[in-house]
Amino acid sequence: MALTPSPAAHDVDLAVIGGGTAGLVGAQTAAGLGARVVLVEEERTGGDCLYTGCVPSKALLAAASAAAQARRASRYGVDVGGVTVDFARVMQHVRQAIAHIEPVDSPEALGRAGVEVVPGRAQVLPDGSLRVGVRTIRARHVLVATGSAPALPDLPGIDGVHVLTNENLWDLAVLPARLVIIGGGPVGCELAQAFARLGSDVTVVHRGKRLLPREDPEASAVLRAALEEDGVRILLEHGAVSVRGTGDGAGDGGTEGGLLTTTSGEDLAFTHLLAAAGRTPRSRGFGLEQAGVELDGAGYVVTDRHLRTSRPGFWASGDVTDHPKYTHTAGVHASIAAGNAILGPLRTVSRIEPPRVTFTDPEIAAVGAPTGKGGIEQAVHHTHLDRAVTEQRMEGFTRLAFDRRGRVIGGTIVGPRAGESLGEVCLAVQRKLSATAVAGVTHPYPTHNDGVWNAAIARTRTVLASPVPKALGRLARRVQERRTR
Ligand SMILES: Cc1cc2nc3c(=O)[nH]c(=O)nc-3n(C[C@H](O)[C@H](O)[C@H](O)COP(=O)(O)OP(=O)(O)OC[C@H]3O[C@@H](n4cnc5c(N)ncnc54)[C@H](O)[C@@H]3O)c2cc1C
Ligand SMILES: NC(=O)c1ccc[n+]([C@@H]2O[C@H](COP(=O)([O-])OP(=O)(O)OC[C@H]3O[C@@H](n4cnc5c(N)ncnc54)[C@H](O)[C@@H]3O)[C@@H](O)[C@H]2O)c1
C-alpha cells in the first residue's frame, strides 16, 4: 500500500519503528489502551509476513499442492490426465492472496484504530527522539520492530550472480528450470517442495546433518523422504563453497544462471540460485546503538523478559530480537511490549518454546519441549490413524512429551494439516494439562487430530499399567468388596 506524507509533528506516548506484524500489533495494542501512537514505516505496512514471507509462500504451496494432488490422484483410482502449470497464473493467485489481506494491514486501517502512520525511515537520535525526514518525534516510549532481512552467504563469486531471496522471489515471471537452494531450514524446505511440485528441477544444499535441524529427528527423516518423492535432490552435510555466473538463465528479470561448487567438489548448474540460509536483524544504520540500545554479537536487539532494551523507554519485539522468528511470536511479543510500555512492566514473555509449523506436505508442527530427544514420550504412528489410512497418508506420526507429573510439555505432529491439530497440543502445554485430561475429552472420529487423542490415551494406559496405579486399583477393589459384604 503506498504511503503519503503526513505533516503534523507532536509528542506521543509510543512511537513504533517498523510496520510489520510486530509493529502493527504493538501500535494497535497501545492505541487500544488509549495511548497516542505513531508508527514509522519506510516501505509499506504489512511487512515480511504479508508481502514476502508467510502469505506468498503458503499461497505458492497451495498451488503446488494442487499440482501434486492431481498427479497422485491415480492412487485413489482417479485418473486426471497430464498436469500443466501456468506459472503466470500461479503468481497471480499469490498476488490475489496478498491483495485480499492487504487492507487489514493498511495505513487506513491503522488510522481507524487510532494509529498515525508516518512514512519514511526512522533515525534514532542520541537523546532518544526519532527523526523521520524533516520531522522530529518525541515519544515517551519507542518500540523497535524493524524485523530481519535474508542473510546472504558470503561466498566467492556470489556478487556476480543474481541471488533470489524471499524478498525478490515473488517478482519471478518464469518458473525456474534448475533451482539450487542454499539452506534446508523452513524457507528452503517449503520453497523446495513448492517449486519441485510446480515443475522445477530443485537441489537443496544444506550443511546440517538433517533438514529442519531444530525439530524431531524423525520429522526430518519423513520430510526428507517426502521431498525426495517430489523429485528434490537433497545434499546434506554439504556447504556452498563458491558461485560462478554463466549467464545460462538470463531472460527472466535479469536472473543469470551459473554453477555452485559444494564442499564435496561437485558443480551444481542452476538457472536460479535461492539463498535460504537464515536471517540478519535489521538493527543497524538508524542510530540504535548510538542511542544506547545494546545489540548482541549477531546484531539482535538485547531484551529482558519484559522486552525492555538496555535504553530506558525503548522496547523491542519481532525478528529484530533473538526470539524465534514467527509471525505469532512477533505479534504476541509486540502486544506484551506495548502493554508493558503503556501500563508498566506487568507481563513477561513465555518460557515455553512457541508453536511452529513448516507448511510442507506433510506439515511438520511442534510446540514446547522438543520431542525425539529421549524424555518421557508417547508416539502414535499414523499407520494406526484411521483417517491417515483412508487417505493413504500414513507416513507421519504424533509424539507427545510429558513431565514426571504426566503433564503435556511438548509435541510434534507430522502429517497433512498437522498445523491445525497442533492447536490442541498448544492448549495442553500452555495450560499444563495432563495426558489423562486430554484422553478424557471426546474427539470426533476419524480426524487427523485423533493422533493427539490416541497418544494421550496410550500414555494414560501406560501409566495405569504401572505398579503404583495397579496397587491402588487392587486396594480400591478390596475396600469396595468389604463395603458390599
Ligand atoms: C519465506 C518466509 C516464510 C515465512 N512463513 C512463516 C509462516 O508461515 N508462519 C510464521 O509464523 N512465520 C513465517 N515467517 C516468519 C515471519 O514472516 C516473521 O517472523 C515476521 O514477519 C516478523 O515480523 P516483524 O514485524 O518482526 O518484521 P517485518 O515483517 O520484517 O517488519 C519490519 C518492518 O520494519 C520496517 N523498517 C525496518 N527498519 C526501519 C526503519 N529504520 N524505519 C522505518 N521502518 C523500518 C521494514 O520496512 C518492515 O516493514 C516466514 C518468513 C519467511 C522469510
Ligand atoms: N512456516 C514457518 O513458520 C516459517 C517458514 C519460513 C521461515 N520461517 C522463519 O524464518 C526463519 C528463517 O528461515 P531460514 O530457513 O532462512 O533459516 P534457518 O536458519 O532456519 O535455516 C537455514 C539453514 O541453512 C543452513 N545453511 C546456512 N548457510 C548455509 C550454507 N552456506 N550452505 C549450506 N547450508 C547453509 C543452516 O545450517 C540452517 O540450518 C526461520 O527461523 C523461521 O523462524 C518460518
TrEMBL record:
Disulfide bonds join C49-C54. Binds 1 FAD per subunit. Residues 355-455 form the Pyridine nucleotide-disulphide oxidoreductase dimerisation domain. Its cofactor is FAD. The keyword Calcium does not apply. GO terms for molecular function: flavin adenine dinucleotide binding; NAD(P)H dehydrogenase (quinone) activity; oxidoreductase activity, acting on a sulfur group of donors, NAD(P) as acceptor. Residues 13-331 form the FAD/NAD(P)-binding domain. The keyword NAD applies. Keywords: Disulfide bond, FAD, Flavoprotein, NAD, NADP, Nucleotide-binding, Oxidoreductase, Redox-active center. NAD(+) binds at G183, G184, G185, P186, V187, G188, C189, E190, G278. InterPro entries: FAD/NAD-bd_sf, FAD/NAD-binding_dom, FAD/NAD-linked_Rdtase_dimer_sf, Pyr_nuc-diS_OxRdtase, Pyr_nucl-diS_OxRdtase_dimer, Pyr_OxRdtase_I_AS. FAD binds at K58, T146, G147, S148, D319. It holds the Pfam family Pyr_redox_2. Belongs to the class-I pyridine nucleotide-disulfide oxidoreductase family. This is Oxidoreductase. It comes from Arthrobacter bussei. The lineage of its organism: Bacteria, Bacillati, Actinomycetota, Actinomycetes, Micrococcales.
